[in-house]
Design brief:
heterodimer, A: 6-stranded mixed β-sheet, 13 helices, globular, B: alpha+beta, 5-stranded antiparallel β-sheet, 4-stranded antiparallel β-sheet
């Protein structure tokens, strides 16, 4: 109990200490539009609390100016992670209000579907209620509105936030998360009817299932071999059925992948497209990359990748930092698992008769919050 | 009396024959001795034991030196024969080689002590290193020659092909426009890049960067040589600052050229029928267009098949 209290204090202090740090970053904010309003979207996710600062012009154009995350791990449902989540929410709210002078009516808070689902699954919905109440009333600010988003709405908002209007009705968006994969598309030519797609495999769950099969041989060769079996099982049991059932194949010209693994691959495969939020990719390119991951993972270090860049107009330092971050978040085995899962999904869209355009989305994490905010502003 | 005379003559002739034999034998013996003398083992000079060891070492070193020299000279010869484009460098190396060889020979001629032997060994190692260096240089030159040879043959082939299909390429309308046909048979023509502005939902062409809201590019492609079903072409718009124009990640990406990975501004996918002139059009919007010259390049299979420029003031 004593230890738990200490951890709670550490989490809270670390969250509070982020306040001045985040404050420094405000000077870096550059507005893109002339006559625009600044909005803040605070999202309570499975891994942490995220805030996106969005510049909106006439409810039509928007620009994501900043996004910040404080890792709190709320879905562990322990006292320390609860306290840390609450502190992070308060800290980010205060930053939006005090540092960026955003009016309270322009700060929106939402709880992601992943958190809600996990709370339901573990019978911890009261933790969620308590968190929202504490956030609204501890500072006596009941005007702090909190929305709980369901999975379909999150998928729909992600599509609206990530995919441009010109590709709204011919793009199938798939978010490969750590524990599951979800997404969908608009089949009827309007943004209310959203066809949801879900499978119970994500990057982490694929890696975990592979680890379980390793037995005593923990070698990479055995991991590679077992991963193949896990992926075949996932493909046969869920992927083929879920994609057929979604009816997305004939309806979509473009298939866009978001999530951590899409961000990682986009950066490792196309460092020269560092400032692109989305990068086009082909099945063959991802397949070749998966082989490189297994056979030559060393070549994916920030040192090697940056060394190969010859274009002098590129921001080499920023590219190197981002690749380093990718390698800190994903180790070789996680990358192999995520890439393998991505390939299995892509394969369902590969055909000799029709060519689908594949894309890797880097800024998927701010997608649904952005759409959530822009929809609220439109109202 | 007669018998006695003939007997005397016989004896004299026998004596002369014997004498000639003796003379012949002694001349032969002398000659034989003269040939044998250099290989006769001479006894060691009556000096100190140290000197004997030193001489033995010198002999072995001499033998090692002679062998090395023979090998090195052989290697050097082959190296020299092959490395025609590195004459100046080789001459320098050769000078160094001969300098080292002379130094070693000098050491051999003087009665070598252990110190000299050490120096000689060092020099030999240096000599070997120099030859290895020459060999490496030669390999590089050989590879470069090979690459150049391949490039030349490729150029010759493409020249021949473009010569055959020159009639496919129409005379460009704009003076600044360049068209070409790559070895795969596609020719790009009528390349045009225009800047547009919008006013009251009507689009009009502009020459000013500050008014430009989008760039619209168009060109026509033709291929008479091969049946193509699905074709993919990329367009690169180079901005005045040298960067490739990228409007959003959905349009731009990377493609492979002979020089390596490049960024494209727009990708065009289309179905093509042999001999059909295909008109292609694209537009790229941006919030900020720079003043200066924009270059539009059209690539097929990593090879540029057309180029035009558009200045914006």
């Amino acid at each position: 109990m004593c230890c738990k209290k200490n951890i709670a204090i550490i989490y809270t202090i670390s969250a509070i200490y982020l306040f001045p740090f985040l404050g420094i970053t405000q000077t870096n904010i550059i507005q893109k539009f002339d006559a625009s309003l600044l909005y803040a979207g605070i999202e309570v996710g499975s891994k942490g609390v995220k805030m996106s600062l969005i510049e909106v012009k006439k409810s039509e154009s928007y620009n994501i100016m900043k996004d910040t995350t404080i890792n709190t791990d709320f879905i562990s449902f322990t006292q320390p992670t609860y306290s840390a989540t609450l502190s992070a929410m308060n800290v980010l709210y205060d930053i939006a209000k005090s540092r960026y002078n955003i009016p309270l009516a322009q700060i929106f808070t939402a709880v992601s579907s992943g958190v809600n689902m996990q709370a339901e699954k573990e019978n911890k919905l009261n933790w969620l209620d308590q968190l929202i109440n504490a956030y609204q009333f501890n500072f006596n600010e009941p005007q702090r509105k909190v929305s709980i988003i369901d999975v379909r709405e999150e998928g729909r908002l992600s599509h609206l936030g990530i995919v441009p209007d010109s590709r709204r009705y011919n793009t199938f968006l798939i978010d490969i998360g750590s524990g599951n994969t979800k997404g969908g598309y608009f089949p009827s030519g309007n943004i209310t009817d959203f066809k949801l797609f879900q499978i119970g495999w994500g990057t982490k769950s694929t890696a975990n299932a592979t680890e379980k099969r390793l037995d005593t041989d923990k070698s990479l060769d055995n991991y590679y071999s077992q991963l193949g079996k896990v992926l075949i099982s996932a493909e046969n049991s869920e992927i083929i059925y879920a994609i057929n059932e979604s009816g997305s194949y004939p309806m979509s010209d473009n298939v866009a992948f978001s999530g951590g693994i899409a961000w990682a691959l986009a950066n490792l495969m196309y460092p020269e497209l560092f400032d692109n939020a989305v990068v086009p990719v082909s099945y063959k390119e991802v397949f070749d990359f998966s082989e490189k991951l297994y056979k030559n993972h060393n070549l994916l270090s920030d040192y090697y990748i940056v060394q190969k860049l010859t274009d002098k107009t590129l921001n080499i330092e920023a590219i190197g930092k981002e690749i380093k971050r990718v390698n800190q978040v994903f180790d070789q085995k996680s990358l192999m698992a995520g890439t393998g899962l991505l390939l299995k999904i892509m394969r369902q869209f590969e055909s000799v008769y029709e060519r689908k355009n594949f894309y890797l989305v880097k800024n998927g994490s701010v997608g649904w919050v952005t759409a959530f905010v822009t929809q609220k502003t439109a109202k | 009396m007669k018998d006695a005379k003939s007997l005397l003559l016989l004896l004299v002739s026998l004596f002369l024959v014997l004498l000639s034999f003796v003379l012949l034998w002694s001349w032969g013996f002398r000659l034989y001795n003269k040939n044998e003398s250099p290989i006769l083992v001479t006894s060691a000079p009556a000096s100190t034991e140290k000197k004997i060891i030193s001489n033995n070492l010198q002999d072995s070193l001499q033998l090692f030196y002679n062998q090395s020299l023979t090998n090195l000279e052989l290697q050097l010869d082959t190296t020299l024969i092959n490395s025609d484009s590195l004459n100046i460098e080789i001459d320098k190396k050769l000078e160094e080689f001969y300098r080292l060889r002379n130094a070693i020979e000098l050491l051999m001629l003087n009665h070598a002590n252990s110190n000299d032997i050490r120096i000689a060994k060092q020099k030999l190692i240096e000599l070997q290193a120099k030859v290895i260096e020459l060999k490496d240089k030669n390999t590089i030159v050989e590879n470069e020659n090979k690459k150049l040879g391949e490039l030349l043959s490729q150029l010759k082939n493409s020249e021949t092909k473009s010569g055959k299909t020159i009639s496919l390429v129409q005379v460009p309308k704009q003076g600044i426009e360049k068209t070409s046909q790559n070895f795969t048979g596609f020719a790009a023509m009528d390349l045009r890049l225009s800047a547009f502005s919008t006013n009251e939902e009507k689009e009009y062409e502009t020459l000013f960067a500050s008014q430009t809201e989008k760039l619209v590019g168009s060109f026509t492609v033709l291929n008479n040589s091969a049946q193509q079903a699905k074709v993919e072409m990329v367009v690169v718009i180079v901005q005045p600052d040298g960067r490739v124009l990228k409007t959003s990640g959905w349009e731009s990406g990377t493609f492979e050229t002979k020089e390596g990975k490049s960024i494209y501004s727009y990708k065009l996918n289309f179905n093509y029928l042999k001999g059909e002139p295909k008109h292609l059009l694209f537009s790229l919007s941006s919030d900020n267009f720079q003043k200066g010259i924009y270059t539009m390049q059209v690539f097929y299979n990593g090879t540029m098949i057309g180029k035009t420029i558009k200045p914006l003031s």
